[in-house]
């Protein structure tokens, strides 16, 4: 039987991305992402529930962020695609910790933030660095022009409008 491990998130960065470099030249980017669900409870009051996700990425995406080809900062609204990965480790106090992360394959900034205002080409639609296509701008509504009335024929018009 086939299986699929795919995650798509839209949320806001909880901090600036951090990039660490390893001795072999590999880079690892980590950042947290908040997704918020807004709903009405039984009493009709609006409630918000925020989930925090640990994002991690390797390779080209981490390199782009390290080299500032992608300038993401805390608060930016992001679109993220990846997969869930759970792991465990032993901390300094010899306690086994469990962590769930999203291993990011694609990450792009959604419009409307300070980055888009400074550089409209700064967003990417895949980790390979493809520029985002310009978004459709809805045309401005224009008042329709009043129809022009055709002139009335003169009194001596005989109904013959053929030129021959």
List keywords for this structure.
2 helices, five-stranded mixed β-barrel, mainly beta, elongated, 164 residues, 6 strands, OB fold (Dihydrolipoamide Acetyltransferase, E2P)
Topology:
Layout: E1 7-13, E2 18-21, E3 27-40, E4 46-58, H1 60-66, E5 77-90, E6 96-109, H2 114-118
Notes on the protein architecture:
The protein is mainly beta. The protein has a domain at 7-118: Nucleic acid-binding proteins (OB fold (Dihydrolipoamide Acetyltransferase, E2P), Beta Barrel), CATH 2.40.50. It is built from two helices and six strands. It has helices at residues 60-66, 114-118; strands at 7-13, 18-21, 27-40, 46-58, 77-90, 96-109. It has a five-stranded mixed beta barrel with strand order 1-3-4-6-5. A hairpin with a 5-residue loop joins strand 5 (77-90) and strand 6 (96-109).
Low-confidence stretches: 119-132
Q: Shape, please?
A: elongated
| Name of the CATH homologous superfamily of the domain at 7-118 | Nucleic acid-binding proteins
Query: What percent strand?
Result: 35-45%
Indicate the CATH architecture of the domain at 7-118. Answer: Beta Barrel
Helix fraction, binned, reads under 10%
Please tell me the overall pLDDT. Answer: 81
Q: Biggest sheet: strands side by side, in what order? A: 1-3-4-6-5
Main beta sheet: strand number and arrangement?
Answer: 5 strands, mixed, barrel
* Highest CATH level, the class of the domain at 7-118: Mainly Beta
Name the structural class: mainly beta
Individual helix count: 2
How many extended strands? 6
How would you spell out the order of helices and strands?
A: EEEEHEEH
What is the rounded Rg? 28 Å
CATH-derived topology of the domain at 7-118 = OB fold (Dihydrolipoamide Acetyltransferase, E2P)
Q: Tell me the distance between the termini.
A: 82 Å
């Amino acid at each position: 039987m086939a299986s699929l491990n795919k995650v798509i998130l839209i949320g806001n960065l909880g901090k600036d991305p951090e990039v660490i470099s390893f001795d072999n030249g590999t880079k690892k980017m980590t950042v947290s992402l908040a997704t918020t669900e807004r709903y009405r409870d039984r009493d009709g009051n609006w409630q918000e529930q925020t989930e925090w996700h640990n994002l991690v990425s390797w390779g080209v995406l981490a390199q782009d962020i390290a080299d500032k080809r992608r300038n993401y900062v805390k608060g930016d609204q992001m679109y993220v695609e990846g997969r869930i990965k759970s792991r465990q480790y032993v901390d300094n106090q010899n306690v086994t910790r469990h962590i769930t992360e999203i291993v990011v394959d694609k990450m792009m900034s959604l419009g409307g933030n300070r980055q888009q205002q400074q550089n409209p080409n700064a967003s990417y639609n895949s980790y390979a660095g493809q520029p985002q296509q310009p978004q459709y701008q809805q045309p401005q509504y224009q008042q329709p022009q009043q129809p022009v009335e055709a002139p009335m024929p003169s009194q001596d018009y005989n109904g013959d409008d053929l030129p021959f």
